[in-house]
Design brief:
This protein has 283 residues and is α/β, with parallel strands linked by helices. The chain has a seven-stranded mixed beta sheet with strand order 3-2-1-4-5-7-6.
Length: 283
């Protein structure tokens, strides 16, 4: 079956190349090449046949092949810590996905997040579920040389890419592979803890433990800022917001849990990025 899928993928690529050639022949063949429109039509027919053969063998194999590659593209030595949350391994493609989901406004999204966090020079910041590190690196610019920024993620691939980004930017951010259910930091270590579009990846028990851990590592008077999908599922504007694991999560439903765990002065509202909401709370 795997062999058939690979053959179908190759057939789909060949059909795409033939399609491009056929179109070129149709428009310029009778002038520049030794082919006429009749030959181009024949090649188009061959292309259609190959394309449907590809679909029959693999069932949208080209898409499936790429999708499986994105989800299984792990390095041989990568290890995943023990977590019940979803772990994303396709780091490079993740950056592209974020760019698409924000309609190219990823930088504006980071700036809005940091504005809501009210970061100040000299503060210590933790980004939980930091992904490829873009927000943590931007946070370092806000807290300056006297401040510190740490980022953790359960995906070794995400952390590897985050470290490369930080090195390229000359940013002193400490990235490490860890899980949100057991943060590798002492009590009262941070002024601010950030969580962006991560909490919906966790099952209920792990989410509760994550918030409990965030409360533990926050200094007295420290701040937590969470950004994630929110609002009634049937009123969401984007397809992403209506996906199964997104639609069944509403960030504002966590407010009672925050109160229960000792986080107060809670503010919430829309991010200004379609279906995303924010919650800001103090310890």
């Amino acid at each position: 079956m795997t062999r058939h899928r690979h053959l179908a993928f190759v057939a789909a690529l060949i059909s795409l190349v033939i399609s491009v050639i056929a179109i070129a022949m149709f428009f310029i063949g009778h002038k520049w090449l030794w082919f006429g429109a009749g030959t181009a039509a024949t090649i188009l027919a061959i292309h259609i046949t190959l394309f449907h053969t590809a679909l029959g063998l693999g069932g949208l194999s080209a898409f499936g092949y790429i999708w499986r590659w994105l989800h299984s593209g792990r390095s041989a030595d990568a290890t995943t810590p023990d977590t019940t949350g979803r772990v994303i391994h396709w780091a490079f493609a993740y950056d592209l996905l974020v760019w698409v989901l924000t309609l190219g406004r990823e930088r504006a999204f980071r700036e809005k997040t940091l504005e809501l966090a009210h970061l100040a020079p000299g503060e210590s910041v933790l980004d939980v579920g930091c992904g490829t590190g873009s927000l943590a690196i931007a946070a370092k610019l806000c807290v300056g040389q006297t401040g510190t920024v740490n980022g953790i993620d359960a995906s070794a691939e995400m952390i590897a890419r985050a470290r490369k980004k930080a090195a390229k930017a000359g940013s002193e951010v400490n990235f490490q592979t860890a899980v949100v259910e057991t943060l590798p930091f002492s009590d009262h270590a941070f002024d601010v803890v950030l969580s962006t579009v991560m909490l919906h990846h966790l099952p209920d028990v792990a989410r509760h433990k994550c918030i409990e851990e965030i409360r533990r590592v926050l200094k007295p008077g420290g701040r937590m800022l969470a950004v994630d999908f929110g609002g009634a599922a049937d009123k969401r504007e984007t397809r992403a917001g209506r996906l199964h694991n997104h639609a069944h999560f509403d960030l504002c439903d966590l407010i009672p849990t925050l109160h229960e765990l000792g986080l107060n002065s809670i503010e919430s509202g829309a991010m200004g990025f379609r279906d995303l909401q924010f919650i800001r709370a103090a310890s």
